[in-house]
Fold this sequence. Notes:
Blueprint: H1 2-22, H2 29-37, H3 41-48, H4 54-60, H5 66-88, H6 94-118, H7 122-125, H8 137-144, H9 148-157, H10 160-167, H11 173-180, H12 187-208, H13 216-241, H14 245-249, H15 260-267, H16 272-283, H17 286-295, H18 299-317, H19 324-349, H20 354-358
Helix pairs in contact: 1-19, 2-3, 3-5, 4-5, 5-19, 6-8, 6-12, 8-9, 9-10, 9-11, 13-16, 13-18, 16-17, 17-18, 18-19
Amino acid sequence: MISGIFSRPIVWGYANARAKAMRPALLGAPAIASMLEAKDAEGIIATLERTDYREDLTTFALRFGGEELIELATGRNFARAAATLLKVCPKQGRPILFAILSRFDVQSLKAVILAKKLGKEFATVEPYLVPAGSISLAELQEIYNQDGLGAMIERIRATEFGRQYASAHMLSPSEVQKISSQGIFEQDAIEQLVGSLESYYYVAAGYKLKSAEPDSVAIRSLLSSEADGKNVLTIMRCKKSGMDATGTRKYLVPGGKIIKSELESMLSASTVDEVAERVAAKFGLQEALDAYKKDSRLTHFEIAFEQSVSRQSVRALHRSVLSVGALAGMLFLKEEEINNIRKIARGTALGMGKEEIREMLVVAR
């Protein structure tokens, strides 16, 4: 016991110091205000060039511009930050960081599979990939190079991510065999594979976070809240589009705190407004409900859930010391930052006013 107590400062001291040293590089209020004042994407880029994003903007500036350049540069900047935290993280904490970052593996795999189906070259999709998880760009290209969905699945299973995905049995052996036997890209097979990948993120994250590391419970709670937000918004969007409960269920993900009967109650609701009332009552989102009643925009609930998770992360992790929580907290703050930059860029491109864009931002430091 004494040995463990005294070893934590040695094991975690440097990693926590590096995570803390990264915080000053996060964009402050002046940079956010400057981007909100920008008239176009070039004005936003001018602000970002005076920050840590300069290197990433330079990487893509010869091939891309405007909002697209901002999208690509922020993704690669996040990947660089994640790589730094993984490099300094002690061995016992790396599975937790990889669990958090596995969502980017899922996003990259979805992009590669879709590009292959549409007949796009890997070179055209590669800049849009965010290699922040365990699957490298080289591995993603090897997956892309396979002939047919079945071969791509086999190559995915050869990666570290894929080995763990396979061990989680997200697809039954018969389902894997059925998909793997198809040399072409059937839409139903793709949807089934993509759905299993998205579900795996929440299942795997929950499993890997059942560790003895301090803060693992808090991080697991954060991801459960993310799953709840995703499921609630999925139900509302599907109901708004006219999709029935059976069709909606296949898009729900596991790992949330909402019990099955409550989800079924939302699925069986007659209208989106009815779901909105229940969601507002359950999660204390009256302000989002009031705004929704004025314009019927579901983004009010989306932003409310994002802000709730962000506040949770700050409360749970900002005081973490000598644990993986400090590194995880930095990841959450960095992801919040790139999402805010992208919202400003998209809002500006759409001609939205700065106050309207500001309401979309998630700032809970």
